Fold:
Amino acid sequence: MSIHINAKTGEIASTVLMPGDPLRAQFIAENYLKHAVKVSQTRNVLFYTGVYNNTRVTIGASGMGCPSIGIYSYELFTEFNVDNIIRIGTCGSYTTDLRLYELINVKGAVSESAFAKNAWGFEEELQECPGAVFESINKVAAQSGTPLQIGNTHSTDVFYSKNPGTPSLAAKYDCRAVEMESFALFANARYLAKNAACLLTVTDIIPTHERLSAAEREQALRPMMKLALDTASSL
Structure:
């Protein structure tokens, strides 16, 4: 049985939305789900299950970085029979071509991380978004008129660095944005033949040092939350 998620059998829905922050998971559950119940709080990493548009959905935090989401997503897939995980997070943009508040549906995640190689023997620098949820997000966004960028992300292990600018690996794969989790999520889903996707909201423009405040982020992330929930209810 899972040692990181203390939910009981049947308390986790087949589709899970994963923000990084436990309090953001709580915010989504309290503001968007009906009949939301807290089903896990081990290490204060919160998971809630409730109903959205007549569909049972779980919201649970991933923590920060590939090791953290690697643990939680693996246990969700293997011990709670989860079929779909949608990561919903923030990102920084390497380019001024992206603007604050824009949404990105991640097609592939690039990383220097050894996670995929050490866990599953995957040698590729790029892990493509596995399964059908990526296209479901595109379809729901088109139906609702939600503007959506599509592209690769740099899934880095490093938040602070002495080297400014776009890393060569990110440039190699035309990654316009950077975050820290999707590479491990995609690798786990690929190995386990599950579905995973990643939606990101641009909250920082790295070349110009523009960034959203904490208060601005609360409102900025709502379109991403709604798009992910609408997608979950369509699966």
Notes: Helices lie at 22-32, 66-79, 115-120, 133-144, 168-172, 182-192, 214-220, 222-234. The radius of gyration is 16 Å. The longest helix spans residues 66-79.
